[in-house]
Amino acid sequence: MKIALLGYGRMGQTIEKIAISRGHDVVLKIDKDDTDYDITVADVAIDFSLPSAAYGNITNCLNNGVPVVSGTTGWLEKYDDAIALCKEKNGAFIYASNFSLGVNIFFELNKVLAKMMGNLKEYNVTMEEIHHTKKLDAPSGTAITLAEGVIENNSNYNAWELDTANSETSIPIVAKRIGDVPGTHSINYASEVDSINIEHVAHNRQGFALGAVVAAEWLSKDKTGVFSMKDVLGL
Ligand SMILES: NC(=O)C1=CN([C@@H]2O[C@H](COP(=O)(O)OP(=O)(O)OC[C@H]3O[C@@H](n4cnc5c(N)ncnc54)[C@H](OP(=O)(O)O)[C@@H]3O)[C@@H](O)[C@H]2O)C=CC1
Ligand SMILES: O=C(O)C1=N[C@H](C(=O)O)C[C@H](O)C1
């Protein structure tokens, strides 16, 4: 498979190593200053760029008939437009706030726990995410997906807020930036008498990168439509 890497930073470079180890060719490595390139030389594109760049990268792929996998976070105000374009062009697109197998299992665990806690009003939920100091967006895309998972499965909550919740129905997400932490997410339900905590800790970026390559392999096999990692992993 010929892969275009849109964004050749920490994730782009990790993805390159995994893609090559799985027998793929990396035919484009695009960064900020690379504006004049032909995306159609690739069978599939993988975008891990910047919040400000992702939408342009995705629309370039969809307008040129190249299936695209995006892991960039912090651009989701334009997600519905990307979906509409994908449908209009009969293209293929996957966005995931987190491509690792472990986090995608954690997403499902979070939903089950949220449902179980729905009738227990004595517990209050809080979330925390910890990432490296170079991260541009807060809260993380993964934390937003986790909060949405609670809201969809627990009628006690209908919104999330960064740092402090201003109402009982809002989930506070505390975002910490420490050293080179790859990504830690925890969800805590606390009552006066006890607490329940679930946590996912990424030890490095390999899990994110492997998931993105597996998603690209899956998407490039004659798929059309908008998909998620649940489709790829069969969860
Ligand atoms: N979904 C997931 O599983 C994961 C998602 N992420 C997300 O992926 C994104 C990238 O993370 P990370 O690799 O750590 O970030 P980096 O800052 O290390 O890499 C981003 C790269 O994008 C480049 N870039 C800037 N503008 C463009 C453009 N127009 N087109 C293509 N590339 C461009 C930057 O180049 P330059 O340096 O020249 O500006 C840089 O090399 C973030 O949004 C992060 O949150 C991260 C890990 C996992
Ligand atoms: O910026 C990162 O590094 C990460 N970003 C993603 C997010 O915002 O959730 C995924 C992962 O946690 C690493």
TrEMBL record:
UniProt-annotated location(s): Cytoplasm
Pathway: Amino-acid biosynthesis; L-lysine biosynthesis via DAP pathway; (S)-tetrahydrodipicolinate from L-aspartate: step 4/4
Annotated GO CC locations: cytosol
Residue numbers binding (S)-2,3,4,5-tetrahydrodipicolinate: H132, G141, T142
Ranges of residues in domain Dihydrodipicolinate reductase N-terminal: 1-99
The keyword Cytoplasm is annotated on this UniProt entry: yes
GO molecular function: 4-hydroxy-tetrahydrodipicolinate reductase; NAD binding; NADP binding; oxidoreductase activity, acting on CH or CH2 groups, NAD or NADP as acceptor
GO BP field: diaminopimelate biosynthetic process; lysine biosynthetic process via diaminopimelate
The family this protein is said to belong to: Belongs to the DapB family.
Record's protein name: 4-hydroxy-tetrahydrodipicolinate reductase
